[in-house]
Design goal:
This protein has 287 residues and is α+β, with helices and mostly antiparallel strands. It has six helices and 17 strands. The strands form four sheets. It has a seven-stranded antiparallel beta sheet with strand order 8-3-2-10-5-6-9.
């Protein structure tokens, strides 16, 4: 055997052993071919941590490399609970007959169903939508493995308000994600942000109940005017008036405001600006 051929064989053996001795495939394919079996459970970790555990048993006498793909769906054994989508790819290697456990990031995809708890069991599910696949890819690439990323997933799977893709500690970062999701949905980014109430139950993980509205209201006046500003019910009745007949000069203005929305019924409300008693701005918000 020539020295060049020997060197090529050594190169392949050292850098690509799976090409000779093992196999590389997706976890789903390996399960379907009875190469491995897998137990999938919720490990009890909180949002932002690797909360889904895969215990994989290589049933062959050959090593195997497995790809856990971002975008893989896992379905709960209990139909009252939410599916999870895996949001970060991972390559794992198993020796012959080896059994090992690996943790992965997972996000809920059915807000109207019950929340996960430690010990819940799952099976590998079917394909996800093209919209969700795009969002999962961005979550993985830019490490949105947190509540902001979860709200982005629900904005696709449950059509939750894009305004809820918001992190008040890093608004620029969350705005980039909101803009991406809006583009995927073919919509405009809302001009306001909402913070959701934090509550979950065995029956419903995500309600869409809004705790707070944060917004910046920009407006222009053609002359010095007395203005009134507030939030109004769908029927036109005032919900909260921030000020009345405040004198403001001609020009462009920026008004930052917050509305505490806990307990407010879901619906479309209106942020209104009056100048000298005449309505000049009317902007809807979903609460």
């Amino acid at each position: 055997m020539s020295s060049k051929l020997v060197n090529l064989v050594l190169f392949v053996l050292i850098l690509c052993p799976s090409m000779i001795f093992g196999q590389r495939m997706s976890l789903k394919e390996a399960v379907e071919k009875d190469i491995v079996n897998v137990e999938i459970t919720d490990n009890g970790k909180s949002q932002g941590e690797k909360n889904i555990s895969f215990t994989i048993n290589n049933m062959t006498r050959e090593p195997v490399d497995l790809l856990l793909n971002a975008g893989m769906l896992v379905d709960p054994v209990n139909p009252d609970l939410q599916d999870h989508v895996i949001t970060q790819s991972m390559l794992v290697s198993l020796e012959p007959l080896e059994k090992a456990t690996y943790d992965a990031y997972g996000m809920c995809t059915q807000g109207s169903k019950g929340g996960p708890k430690e010990g819940d069991q799952y099976i590998i599910g079917g394909p996800i939508s093209e919209e969700l696949a795009k969002v999962v890819k961005l979550i993985e690439r830019n490490s949105y493995q947190d509540g902001t990323g979860q709200n982005a997933v629900w904005a696709i799977t449950d059509r939750a308000n894009i305004a809820g893709i918001y992190d008040e500690s890093d608004p620029a970062r969350s705005k980039a994600l909101a803009e991406f999701v809006a583009d995927v949905r073919g919509e405009d980014v809302p001009w306001y942000n909402v913070v959701y109430e934090e509550h979950e139950s065995d029956e419903r993980m995500f309600t869409g109940d809004v705790a707070r509205l944060d917004a910046i209201f920009r407006y222009s006046l053609i002359a010095t005017s007395k203005i009134t500003f507030g939030i109004y019910h769908p029927n036109g009745e005032p919900l909260q008036v921030y000020f009345e007949d405040r004198v403001r000069p001609k020009g462009n203005h920026r008004l930052k405001f917050t509305f505490e929305a806990t307990g407010i019924k879901h619906g479309t409300y209106h942020v209104k600006l009056f100048s000298e008693g005449v309505l000049i701005e009317d902007r809807p918000v979903e609460l």
